What does this fold into?
Amino acid sequence: MRKIKVAHIITRLNSGGAQEIALSIASGLDKQVFETIFISGSQDINMDMVKRWEMEVKIIPELIREINPLKDLKALAKLYFFIKDNKFDIVHTHTSKAGILGRIAAKLAKVPIIFFTPHGSIFHSIYYGPIATFLLGRLENFAASFTDKIITCSENEKKDFLDNKVGSCDKYITIYWGIRQDNFLKSYDILAKRRELGMSENVILIGNVARLVPEKGHLFCLESFKIVVDKFPNAKLFIIGDGILKPDIEAKINELNLNNNVIMLGYRRDVAEILASLDISLHTSIWEGTPVAIIEAMLMAKPIIASRVGGIPELIEDGSTGILVSPYDKEALAQAIMRLINDKAQASKMGEAARQSAQDKFNLELMIKNITKIYDSLVESKIRNKISSNAGVYN
It folds into this structure.
């Protein structure tokens, strides 16, 4: 029997959790059963990441994250013709913009099976105003009407879409993210890594791994960290990641006189080793889906302090596998950091509990198994049954 042809679509393949997850799904499908290609816009492509997942990528330059009617129409047309010409059996779209354009193109091209994975909710986005958010919500509802399944990464995300009247409950299925765990379960030479990074053994080392974008909450994180430094001058904060907010973060560091305590490391390929060297891992998002960075820190057995937003409470059990605080509450964040600094036994206990939870719940094989199960079910009912009843159509 011939292979099932699958296209995954996303606006960009930059360094982000959504991109890693989307690529891992596409790459993880059984190559004896599925023939898979990725379709992406040309913005900020991380070729290291693409090569790591060994994925063939078709570039459509007009497929961009921002709303641009002319480019959006061109992207829609190019998606339609590419999908139609290649006769895909499944189109799986990722993130809101690619989700809307990709699903419309797939519907026009009469693709038998259409999926959508939001990777976070647009309804709390700081990028869109209330009018744009309302219109996007209506477009999401329209696209949901011809989507076979909407795969959410948390029950919170599913609830958010349903509360905003996008599709019906039977359209949704929640599958928790899974990642490659091997790099995050290794033993690393912590002291050697600290020396390489210019950190002595007695430094209290805290890390924040995230893209430098407004929704990740770096500015309020810095204000909170200032409170910590006033009590613990030997505390240092690594900011790991890159993005558009870099100049604002640098300005905030100067404003708060934190130049000796905050180190911006930029994009790094050695995140696992850096995580191993940390005492505490911070995740200060203002809104969020299910951040891969938290799963990575959990696997490294790091005590985690994170914002109580989006899917994060489904990752972290407050008081057991980490500490949850409200976004923007710089005093609560500072108190949580100082609590873990003062109680190393509790910090270690939380880290070990987090590792066990992540190993059980967020492994790549389980995620691929669950995704494949949905694919197989719809392939059986919408393609193979049709082949049987109408021989030759899909030969």
User: Anything to note?
Assistant: Residues 391-395 have pLDDT under 50 and may be disordered. The longest strand covers residues 4-10.
